[in-house]
Amino acid sequence: xxxxxxxxxxxxxxxxxxxxxxxxxxxxxxxxxxxxxxxxxxxxxxxxxxxxxxxxxxxxxxxxxxxxxxxxxxxxxxxxxxxxxxxxxxxxxxxxxxxxxxxxxxxxxxxxxxxxxxxx
Length: 120
Description:
The chain has 120 residues and is mainly β. The chain is 0% helix and 58% strand. It has no helices and 11 strands.
């Protein structure tokens, strides 16, 4: 069973920065897409950014130019550098990965979420 563990959330003032990290552990053949989603209270979970091997990163329009996603393919980690944070970035941030298991099944795996709060 593959698990994703996030870290790096917290409270920051508007205009500040935070860096989220996510590490995958467990037995697997490979990870395709890794990315970040967020969910604000009373709202649906939305894509923030994702990165697939050999492809360009994809970002939500609301974070383009402020957030940067990166992966360490050898360590099965993904990070999200968030700069110039705004109060509307406040949400629970979830790490996500499409994992190919040892049995060649593709599992959609989610982390437990980490809270990001941006004060005005």
